[in-house]
Amino acid sequence: MVNLGLISGNKGTKSVGLSFRIPYNTQWGQSLVVCGSESVLGSWNVKRGLALSPQHQGDELIWRGSTAVPAGFECEYSYYVVDDDRNVLRWEAGKKRKLVLPDGLRNGEVVELHDLWQTSSDGLPCTSAFRNVIFRKSWSTEIQRPLGVIQTKLDENVPSEFCCDVIEIARVDEVELLNSQLSADICDWQFYEIGAVEGNFCPETGPNRELVELSEPQPRSIILSDGMMREMPWRGAGVAVPMFSVRSEADLGVGEFLDLKILVDWAVESGFHLVQLLPINDTSVHGMWWDSYPYSSLSVFALHPLYLRVQALSERIPEEIKEEIQRAKELLDGKDVDYEATMATKLSIAKKIFVLEKDTILNSDSFNNFFTENEFSFEVEQHFYLSLSQCVLGQGWLKPYAAFCFLRDFFETSDHSQWGRFTCYSIDKLEKLVSKDSVQYDVICFHYYIQFHLHLQLAEAAEYARKKGVVLKGDLPIGVDRNSVDTWVDPNLFRMNTSTGAPPDYFDKNGQNWGFPTYNWEEMSKDNYAWWRARLTQMAKYFTAYRIDHILGFFRIWELPEHAMTGLVGKFRPSIPLSQEELEREGIWDFNRLSRPYIRHGFLQEKFGAYWTVIASNFMNEYEQQRYEFKEDCNTEKKIASKLKSCSESFFFLDNEDKIRRNLFDLLQASRNIVLIRDPEDASKFYPRFNIEDTSSFKDLDDHSKNVLKRLYYDYYFHRQESLWHQNALKTLPALLNSSDMLACGEDLGLIPSCVHPVMQELGLIGLRIQRMPSEPGLDFGIPSHYSYMTSTYLLLQLTLILEIIAAMLHTELSNVAYWVCAPSCHDCSTLRAWWEEDEERRCQFYKTVVGSDSLPPSRCVPEIAYFILRQHVEAPSMWAIFPLQDLLAVKEEYTTRPAAEETINDPTNPKHYWRFRVHVTLEALVKDKELKSTIKDLIRGSGRSYPPTGEIEVQAGREKGVATAAPTKQQVTAGLEKISLLNESPKTEAVAVL
Fold it and tell me: Where do the CBM20 domain residues begin and end (predicted)?
């Protein structure tokens, strides 16, 4: 690269003009800066980059800027959106642009760069999932620069370089221009690929590209960067299964990381490009089956000891330990996971092996490399928005994790508020705890040892998946446990007096309370979200794709007070509250009436009869005439239980203690019967309670107050916050997405604000579609054939304008910005079989509206039904079709003998659900089942989706022809329905053909 600083004083240096041009629509107070690797473009310091100036051209906003550079100049550069203080608001996705000036430029001549903003959608093929896995043997992204000449209306020739990124799915020899049409100062063209076979070529799709409006004075040369070559959309399929649900011949009561190698083999032979897991981080908070919940992390960095294969800890395991392992295998090989017994057994055996070889392992080079690599949370990095002081190494996760585990076991609780002098974390205390001279050093090292072997085993499985062409997809939980390593080490990153959850939705009419503390985003932003970036860096060691759990949490989170039991009495954070002044202008004055518990004496009489006064005097304060609220010492469930226990003798004449407790708990829930929630940090601000019209407090108001509050309620939940949440997501999500090159997907189910999908499109995030939870208004079921790879038909009508704006900002068609994963079910809902069998009314409705039959549907989800629904999804235009393993097994009668309800992984309405489902067939048996593999592979092959090659690279037929695979024809669907209908007419038929 040329260093302009070294030659700036040389007056004889030939200088040429460099002119930047990029269309981009900004908001008020925003501007564009181009920043690059050389000092003339700021040396990656955006505050010193080249500012661009806006100019309206029709409906477009064109940003331009010029500077002088020496001939032979080379650099890398990118565009950034900044505010008035040059703070970065947004930056381009994908690789840095590379600039090499043409040869032969004379002094004073101008080179004009015509660029388009690089969206994250453009960069999806560059993610590790595609680059390192799917296209690992047959792809490259190269900038091709065939030289063209544009004839302008001034009859002067302008040498031009046409730049295009090419994804080589099949072998491509070169890229050339096709059908150049000259007209005045407008040039239309397309690129096409020339393949390895003589005479075989594949033109890109879409309309011709255009070059319009040359600058005045006319430039000497134009370099036109026009994005990716437009090829047929790649589509793939995957299988989803929790790690704990896998069963193999070698496992010890639960799925283990090394089992992934067998699962990958089955996936490849069945035609899948992806294996998706639930979170695999350590959740050992309580030391009991509650820890089976995979979304409540003890550490966001440590792996779960549950998935350790103890047989692989050493090649020299004594015979008596081998015999113990064999006995444990037989004992733990149950229908479901026995979490507590499995954890205890594995740790017990691992400790015995550790004692035998700790010196060898702990002194090995591989362990020392692992220890050094994880001694620090994140690496020093030079980035344009970080100063050197902000890049200082942070204390790593491994030592704090081992120390936490020791203290948890020593104090018999993970609640670090009960750890005495160790309650407050410090590096000095940590170093003493993990010191080699400490009496607990062996215990500390045991936790190092377990994490080291977990790392080795998962890394081995991950590398195996990469070599086989299978994407391993992880899961990024939205929360961490309140009593976790992370809240102990960095409590300032969390709002510990709050709890996260979800408002009432499809899953639960009372909402959900997950119990995690909410994030202190303001504090996290100070080091550019280093904690999040460290998490993604750690995940990228093993995964090439990941799912962002509850992506809405990066726009806003449903925040509840710490004492809340359900998700009803929450508020969005961040959000714009209703101010007292605003309410007063609308004629709302009685804030105590609206924001304090609405418990009237009639409620007490109804619950406790003649003895209601005894309850009221012991548990209640009468804050207004005949209106009550709980006293401070009994305003939570825990406090009520404690008080009842301490004064139970006083209530001997009442019903039993359990009944009193239940009634008080019900009353406590009723105490949330309020209209407005007062902000605990600012008493002049209020938030409307969710489902405000359902409360008796609201129903007792006068009509004027009802009308005002209803209007403010709908404004708060559906309009008021959109811009704020949009901006919030664009602050937080890019830091995550740019911290690794993994393919990112977002779980966007539930109450979806209208700002979510445009942001996901802008950032290239893949969304999720579940057929029984349609996003489209007026539909009972989603229509997979209408799902789109790159369209926005799923959005509510009111989003049309927003999408048009976003599309204009991205300078692309709406059909080029949305990516989807479609699936018939997920871990948070019942399986395909269970859903079919649990609700007769919905089953009949589905059979009529989706299957298109007026006959009575089968009561069981027989293989033909399962196949029909799977085919709908695999033939959908979505980028990915990912199927829970249970749904795939449903296509074969042999695997449907287990009651369908037992295959459900999670019940979102139950906060203490036991996550213990195990697949009832081993992976080895699935690998041997040629019939099942053939059925699934034919399903995928017939859909036009890509499937991993089992031998040499296979060139897809659709790719060779340059045509997309269409959705199933009406004739195909009709034929399938006829076969399904046979089930109603001939229930005793021995064999019904599979569709």
Answer: 10-119
- Span 585-610, pLDDT tens digits: 999 998 988 988 788 888 788 888 87
Task: Characterize the bridge pairing of strands 209-211 and 186-195.
Answer: antiparallel
Taking the CB of residue 31, how many other CB atoms lie within 10 A of it?
A: 18
Question: What are 947-994's pLDDT values in tens digits?
Answer: 887 653 343 333 333 333 333 333 443 444 444 444 444 333 332 222
Rounded distance between C-alpha atoms, residue 899 and residue 890, angstroms? 12
Distance CA 488, CA 407 (A): 12
Gap between the Cα atoms of 801 and 135, Å rounded: 37
Spatial separation of the C-alpha atoms in residues 330 and 919, rounded to whole Å: 17
Contact between residue 78 and residue 96 where contact means Cβ atoms under 8 Å apart: yes
Q: Taken in order 73, 74, 80, 82, is the CA torsion positive or negative?
A: negative
C-alpha–C-alpha distance, residues 567 and 750, integer Å: 14
d(CA 674, CA 670): 9
User: Which amino acid appears at position 89 of this protein?
Assistant: L
Cα atoms found within 13 Å of the Cα of residue 356, Cβ hemisphere only? 12
The residue type of 254 is V
Give the tens place of pLDDT for each residue, 541-562. 999 999 998 888 999 999 998 8
* Chain length of the chain: 995
Q: What is the pLDDT of residue 825?
A: 61
| DSSP code string of 445-505 | HHHHHHHHHHHHHHHHHHHHHHHTT-EEEEEE-S-B-SSSHHHHH-GGGEETTEEEEE-S-
Interatomic CA distance for residues 403 and 429, integer angstroms: 10
Q: Please give the full DSSP string across 51-102, using - where no structure is assigned.
A: E-EEEEETTEEEEEEEEEEETT-EEEEEEEEE-TT--EEEE--SSPEEEEPP
CA distances from 779 to 20, 539, 635, 690, 782 (A): 48, 37, 43, 24, 7
Question: Other C-beta atoms within 10 Å of 912: how many?
Answer: 9
Residue type, 741: D
pLDDT digits (tens, 9 = 90+) for 88-147: 877 887 678 888 888 778 888 888 888 888 876 667 777 898 889 998 754 433 333 333
Phi first, then psi: give them for residue 80, nearest 5 degrees.
-135, 145
Block residue for tokens 């445009």? 758
Token pair, residue 373, equals 């690599």
First vs last C-alpha separation in the chain: 61
Fill in the amino acid letter for 662. Answer: R
Mean pLDDT, the chain, integer: 79
Q: Please write the tens of the pLDDT for every residue from 403-444.
A: 999 999 999 999 999 999 999 999 999 999 999 999 999 999
Q: Answer yes or no: pTM beyond 0.85.
A: no
pLDDT in tens, 492-534: 999 999 999 888 876 677 788 888 999 999 999 998 899 999 9
Scanning 490-619, the segments in alpha helix (DSSP H) are 521-524, 530-539, 580-585, 591-595, 601-608, 612-619
Give, for 627, the enclosing helix (H) or strand (E): strand 627-630
**Share of residues in the chain with pLDDT > 90 (%):** 43
Do residues 28 and 67 lie in contact, with contact meaning Cβ atoms separated by under 8 Å?
no
> Distance between CA atoms of 713 and 587, rounded to whole angstroms?
15
Strand-pair partners of 112:
19, 222
Contact 216, 264 (CB under 8 A): no
Pair 743, 129: CB distance under 8 Å: yes
Sign of the dihedral defined by the CA atoms of residues 280, 282, 283, 287, in that order: positive
Q: What is the distance between the alpha carbons of residues 79 and 20, in angstroms, rounded to a whole number? A: 10
Residue type, 721: Q
Phi, psi of 438, rounded to the nearest 5 degrees: -80, 155
Peptide bond into 784 cis (omega under 30): no
Nearest Cα to Cα of residue 781 among 793, 791, 770, 797: 770
Closest among 658, 700, 644, 691 to 672, alpha carbons compared: 691
